[in-house]
Amino acid sequence: PAVVATMQGFTPAQCNALATFTGTNDAAIVELTDSRGGTTRTYQVAKLADGKCWMLNNLKLGSTTGTTTLTPADSNVAASFTLPQLITTGTSSYDAPQAIGPVPGDTGTGATNYGYLYNWPAATAGASRTSNPAGSGDAQYSICPANWRLPSGGDTGEFAMLNAKMNNATATTPSASGGTGYYQNWQATGPFKGAFSGWRSGSFNAQGSYGHLWSRSAHASAAGYAHSAYFGSSYVNPDYSSNDRYYGFGVRCLLN
Question: Is residue 226 within 8 Å of residue 218, measured between CB atoms?
């Protein structure tokens, strides 16, 4: 695929003009660059079965040598937000943002292109149990590039709707759990190009076995929980709701 624009400069009109990516028609993929933090990354992007453009790689934003400043000009933030320096060890946090990496086993290519991991306060550019308590719905901001955002969670959220559309479901309120029959689309060889980046909760876990991706949706009643998508080699749950906000999960962004 050709690099056609920056992540921040890609438009809904350009998205709409793309063919739907089914997992095999690689000509439907475009490559976009993101130079935040002084490091230029290239991400694959495609229009999927729900008609929306998704990142096909996990976000890899952050530095091992210092903090990264995000601004409304380049990121989905209301004001300047400081993403902390990447860590690999240390105490997990429910409310203080944490960026985690490099992730063990990340080769930077293909199925093991894991990106970095983030706790929910980092993924949402500072949402805490005070600013976004249980029942508050969707966090408004994220560390996604400008004009992009975190997908919504819940059994009718954007992860669940994508799962339904990839499986030709006609219901407008799909079940959150895809079960064992729907996992193929989330694999590295499927249209979502999922990466088994695992998670971190004090230490790294399940790299190469499971993928976890944050949504922007707070839990309805549990102050320390937020929704995510979860998938493995034979299972997918596009709305896993009982995840502590301190977990380090991957981030995939969705075009506004």
Answer: yes
Q: Encoding tokens for residue 83? A: 């993403």
Please tell me the distance from the alpha carbon of residue 196 to that of residue 174, in angstroms, as a whole number.
24
Distance CA 138, CA 151 (A): 9
Indicate yes or no: pTM above 0.85.
yes
CA distances from 7 to 34, 66, 102, 200, 238 (A): 6, 23, 22, 27, 25
Tokens of residue 229, six digits = 């998508």
C-beta separation of 176 from 249 below 8 A: no
User: How far is Cα 12 from Cα 114, in angstroms, rounded to an integer?
Assistant: 27
Q: 200: which strand partners?
A: 204, 248
**pLDDT single digits (tens) 190-225:** 999 999 999 999 899 999 999 999 999 999 999 999
- Chain-centroid distance of CA 133 in Å reads 21
What values do phi and psi take at 218, rounded to 5?
-70, 155
